[in-house]
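Backbone-to-sequence.
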């Protein structure tokens, strides 16, 4: 935990409290760690291995949204927003996570400005990465003669 960007700034006592309140979660390759539409009762810190976030609508054909490498915290936004999980988290290879309960995570965020700032930076980096991916996808589509302009004018309900 001390080696992660998000929690590395915590003092040793806070790190121990957070780790003590967490639960170790081992996942075998292919194992579903959480599913979309489940309550966000915890966030998962990837400690070892590799996992992926997948669209829920495509259970028979998994479509990867992003990979989850060691050091990355997943599920934190759903916890913060008190919302259902939007994606499925599945182990790509045997993995180890620290499962941090929602109340424990929120307590750390609320009581440590450095963690809150680090979390905000992490979210911003992921959003910028998503924007870059969308731009690359649109460029690829245009190069191959695909018209995505219908998506630009689609109204939200």
């Amino acid at each position: 935990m001390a080696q992660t960007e998000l929690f590395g700034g915590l003092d040793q006592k806070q790190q121990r409290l957070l780790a003590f309140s967490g639960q170790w979660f081992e996942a075998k390759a292919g194992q579903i760690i959480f599913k979309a539409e489940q309550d966000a009762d915890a966030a998962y810190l990837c400690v070892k291995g590799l996992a992926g976030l997948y669209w829920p609508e495509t259970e028979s054909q998994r479509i990867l949204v992003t990979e989850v490498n060691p050091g990355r915290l997943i599920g934190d936004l759903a916890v913060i927003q008190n919302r259902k999980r939007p994606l499925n988290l599945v182990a790509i290879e045997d993995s180890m996570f620290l499962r941090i309960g929602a109340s424990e995570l929120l307590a750390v965020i609320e009581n440590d400005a450095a963690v809150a700032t680090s979390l905000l930076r992490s979210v911003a980096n992921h959003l910028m990465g998503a924007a870059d991916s969308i731009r690359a996808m649109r460029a690829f589509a245009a190069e191959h003669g695909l018209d995505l302009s219908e998506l630009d004018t689609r109204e939200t309900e």
